[in-house]
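Hi R.,

Here's the input for the pyridoxal-5'-phosphate complex you asked about:
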Amino acid sequence: MSTPTPSPTADLLARDARHASGLWAPDVAFVRGEGAWLWDADGKRYLDAMAGIAVASVGHANERLVEALAAQARRLIVCPQNLANDVRTEFVEALFAHLPAPLERVFLTNSGAEANEAALKWAFAATARRRVVAAKRGFAGRTLGALAMTWEAKYRKPFEPLAVPVDFVRFDDAAELEAAVGDETAMIWLEPVQGEGGVHPASATYLRRARELADAHGALLGFDEIQCGVGRTGRFLASEHAGVVPDLLVLAKGLAGGVPIGALVMTEAVARAMPAGGHGTTFGGNPLAAAAGLAVLQELDERGLIAHAAAMGARFKAGIEALGSDRVREVRGLGLMLGVELKEKAAPVIAALREAGLLTINAGATVVRFVPPLVITPEQVEEAVAIFGRVLRA
Ligand SMILES: Cc1ncc(COP(=O)(O)O)c(C=O)c1O
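And here is the predicted structure with pyridoxal-5'-phosphate in place:
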């Protein structure tokens, strides 16, 4: 008897498991996407409310993004930041058209954590101080400096001692922040909407108080908008909802629609503090990533995707609330960054949603997170809500 041929998925998963790091054990393999749809290797279609964790901002296989990448690949791929480049300059100009003064300098990287590392170094250089005040439940990445600002002990503990001293305070608690910030504080580091920590938007008064405290103590204010920035919350920056401008701002994830990128944005004074040769990168700001970033910003502007994210987010949130499920404790979030806190573990619900054709991701143990592409249509939002309703009733 001949052995049965494995399905394309089974074949891919077995081959993947052979050489992958072992950090994960995938049980699905995606091979194609279009807008907010994804297809696995066996041809099953999924509605993508995960978007590579808030990355595929302009949707999968976005025509403008694909064309920009292909055209740039034919023209020039390599040009580091010590040499000027036409498309990088265009991208940076387009980026600053979306950013408030006095933010006017940028250092481009290849990832969020890498940009957060740069933020730490610039903050240390600009203040000649070393301590950081960051938030409990906060996530800043897994490289050693960023890891120090990441609260979850299971990420941090195996690698302690970490080189950056960080004081963690309760998120959205102005009194705790006030007690922690002092004349040794180099930087207050906050996500205006915490992502990995469970989708918690900060109040406007808290972010304003953070600005005041930083100023009062000669510290810098840094916002990690890696997940919540670039239109996701219905404004280009989540911090715009509070009208607070930081000294350092980090963007990544959705900024180039899935092409690796990070951006540390700074004031003139912060940028100037770095000694010559004090930082650098080989790939950061490469023309391919810049072309992708420019295409994303053009898509956001020309298709009105930021206002669309606000409208779709409101529809999504209202739809979930209207399900009236007694398994739901709270629906939180801003725009298309939504978290549904369950009264039970999220993992089995997320698995059932995937089985039903809706891809989501957890944010902590009990939160189902919805961070779909910003191009998600009203019909797709209705479908996602309907699937969620069916799974919650099952
Ligand atoms: C708020 C925040 N900061 C930093 C990071 C790290 O970014 P990266 O995975 O690109 O290093 C993430 C990633 O999830 C994030 O959500």
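One thing worth noting: The pocket of pyridoxal-5'-phosphate is lined by residues 53, 111-113, 116, 139-141, 191, 195-196, 224, 226-227, 252 (CB under 6 Å).

Cheers,
M.
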